[in-house]
Design a protein that fits this description.
globular; Arc Repressor Mutant, subunit A
Length: 346
């Protein structure tokens, strides 16, 4: 059975959502809209970074299949990620144009939907976590000022306000994007510092997503596009690496586990994620180390071992190169910082 939030009923259904400041802090930065218990659990968080630039975080789980419908007239550019859940989006422009897009975990997207009817389908009991960044045209032009030669033609039309066509690009969430998102979701500050931190991370995420878009269009391609089956195997390889940071398989063993030639796996991994397998492993190790040190439950030596380093000095050098600080200094700072409720999870 499915519930449908129609264009007419949406405001009526959601008008009783509880709206509060984040973690009982009324800092004026954001609004939390909680899902009614009759529909499910979770919330939608809306933050206006500046006029024309908005951040939206959805963390929800519906009791039944849920269909949400809404109209878009003047579309901002939408960028973001699906972190969990499979979401079916249908964008209709009149009777002739219709596009169906399935958002999958660890995928990035860039989307533009002017004069459209959008339908979003959520599956029952499935946890959904998405991050969306919405940019109005004037702000987008400021970000990309001085870059006309590197911008794809159809995207340039969006910048110029000359496009009325639906635009959507799906990419893979790179290690750099994952790190920026994790830092965004774990903001350690409150008040004005929180606003500055969030804006800096949003701009960083926009940079990664637009760079992915530009390079995907203009990077010389010596290899043909990957087949869907091969892409699934490469994603599986990435998952294996992520689950075995302490003792990762060798390249040959990893290739054997996913049923690919090692050279094909290396080439395809870089083609999909913009980094090498070793580069991805290193970034994931460093990010997990940072999380462990921030939690303060393990000391530096224990963290180094936990993320796969047998040499403490090698770990210290790698950490400092990645984050610009020694792990011991970072650990001491985290231990000494009084963590407020709003710094535990953005």
């Amino acid at each position: 059975m499915s519930q449908t939030i129609s264009i007419d009923k949406k405001n009526e259904l959601f008008e009783n959502f509880q709206k509060t400041g984040f973690a009982n802090h009324t800092d004026g930065l954001e609004t939390i809209v909680e899902l009614p218990q009759a529909i499910g659990k979770g919330f939608v968080r809306e933050i206006e970074i500046r006029p024309g630039l908005q951040l939206m975080i959805r963390d929800l789980q519906t009791r039944e299949n849920l269909v949400e419908k809404f109209e878009i007239e003047d579309s901002p550019l939408g960028l973001g990620f699906c972190l969990s859940g499979n979401i079916q989006n249908t964008v209709s422009q009149g009777q002739a144009r219709k596009a169906r897009i399935l958002s999958k975990p660890r995928e990035s997207y860039v989307s533009f939907s002017p004069k459209s009817l959008v339908t979003v389908e959520y599956l029952a009991v499935q946890p959904v976590f998405t991050i969306g960044i919405f940019i109005d045209q004037p702000i987008l032009n400021i970000f990309l000022e001085g870059q006309p030669e590197s911008i794809p033609y159809d995207f340039k039309k969006i910048m110029d306000g000359a496009s009325e066509n639906f635009y959507n690009r799906i990419g893979s969430m790179t290690a750099s994007m994952q790190m920026a998102v994790h830092q965004l979701l774990n903001c350690p500050y409150i008040g004005q510092l929180k606003q500055m931190y969030i804006e800096s991370k949003v701009v960083e995420i926009i940079t990664h997503l637009l760079a992915q878009l530009v390079f995907a269009e203009f990077e010389p391609r010596g290899y043909p596009p990957l087949h869907r089956d091969i892409m699934e195997r490469i994603r599986e390889a990435r998952n294996i690496v992520d689950c075995n940071l302490q003792n990762p398989p060798s390249l040959l063993e990893l290739a054997r586990q996913v049923g690919l030639n090692d050279c094909y796996l290396k080439r395809g991994f870089r083609q999909m994620f913009g980094t090498t397998i070793f580069g991805h492993l290193h970034t994931q190790r460093m990010e997990q180390a940072r999380r462990f040190l921030q939690e303060g439950k393990m000391n530096v030596t224990e963290v180094a071992y936990e993320v796969g380093y047998s040499s403490l000095s090698q770990f210290a050098r790698a950490f400092k190169k990645q984050f610009g600080a020694k792990p011991s200094d970072f650990y001491a700072e985290m231990k000494g910082k009084a963590v407020s409720p709003s710094s535990s999870r953005f």
